[in-house]
Specification:
The protein is an alpha/beta fold and about 325 residues long.
């Protein structure tokens, strides 16, 4: 079942990232003033405050965790979920300030991506609000790899303004979707052998004939996923990989890469046309994300009713 992507009441566009940005500003002050060991201790009262004060985040965390844990979520589960989110936000400050010596980052399944980049072939990454994307930037910078983040235009302005305040000297590159010239900029970036990542676990606002929302089973119930990121990869004839930066606790992160589809040829593959290949890539993405949520449930950070339909929102 598929429907045109639209601007529903449950759209992430209505959620915005303002709450995250406020937290980031607080974390920046704590990180700089206290240092990471003390700052991590301060996360506990911050987590407790949000657990008590933010009823919506608490409720939606419990709903999601019940699916991922396959049992009713307890308060300590929700506390652990919010604390993991706060930990990744704190670490984002240090990653952006290039204090990489404070972390252990390992990669799994990255060899095919490195092989493509070694041939100056750009790669698209389909991530999620899972763990830390900044861990990828840290690893890539150590290898001399250029990374760009694709965002919707309004979100890109908010993120860039806040990250500039956190780390003014950080070498960040974002490509704002929805504005004139974005496709040419993205194509040039990939042609130069860069990585381009976007978070594919939220649908883009607004109607587009080039993007459709698919209702797919996710952790036991239908949820809305956009095929836009994968149609973009097909249009640009690029390989697309699933990528997640799992926070394993303390200073440890794992970057996980899995190939979703290779659109470098627009010829039918295995008897499938482009639409079918795009749908297969979305379904593979959703399956991998669901498995990862079960494996590492406290790393997924969508604190709203992800399963809401237009009628129920």
């Amino acid at each position: 079942m598929s429907t045109p992507a639209d601007h529903s009441p449950a759209s992430w566009a209505n959620e915005r990232e303002r709450g995250t940005l406020r937290i980031l500003r607080v974390m920046r002050w704590i990180a700089v003033a206290a240092g990471r060991p003390i700052a991590r201790l301060v996360l506990h009262p911050i987590t407790l405050y949000f657990l008590v004060a933010n009823a919506k985040a608490r409720r939606e965390s419990a709903r999601y965790l019940a699916r991922a844990l396959q049992r009713p979520a307890r308060w300590r589960d929700v506390y652990r979920h919010i604390h993991r989110f706060a930990s990744t936000v704190l670490d984002r400050v240090y990653f952006l300030q290039e204090r990489f010596d404070q972390f252990e980052v390992r990669a799994t399944g990255a060899d095919p991506v490195h092989a493509l980049l070694a041939r100056s072939e750009g790669v698209m990454l389909a991530g999620a609000h899972f763990g830390s994307f900044e861990a990828l930037r840290a690893s890539a910078q150590g290898r001399g790899v250029r990374v760009a983040m694709l965002m919707y235009e309004d979100n890109a302005r908010l993120i860039n303004a806040t990250l500039a305040a956190v780390a003014p000297n950080a070498q960040l590159h974002t490509i704002a979707l929805g504005r004139a010239g974005a496709m040419l900029e993205l194509r040039s970036w990939l042609d130069a052998g860069g990585l381009a990542g976007l978070l594919a676990d939220r649908t883009l606002p607004g109607h587009s004939e080039r993007s459709r929302a698919l209702m797919l089973d996710f952790l036991g119930a239908p949820a809305r996923f956009s095929d836009g990121p994968f149609r973009l990869a097909a249009m640009l004839r690029r390989p697309v990989y699933f990528m997640a930066g799992l926070h394993e606790g303390g200073k440890r992160y794992e970057l996980r890469f899995v190939e979703l589809a290779d659109f470098r040829s627009d010829a039918p593959t295995g008897g499938l046309d482009t639409d079918q290949r795009v749908r297969a890539a979305v379904e593979r993405y959703v399956g991998l994300l669901a498995a990862l949520c079960v494996e590492s449930p406290y790393n997924w950070f969508n604190f709203y009713d992800f399963w809401a339909t237009d009628d129920a929102a």
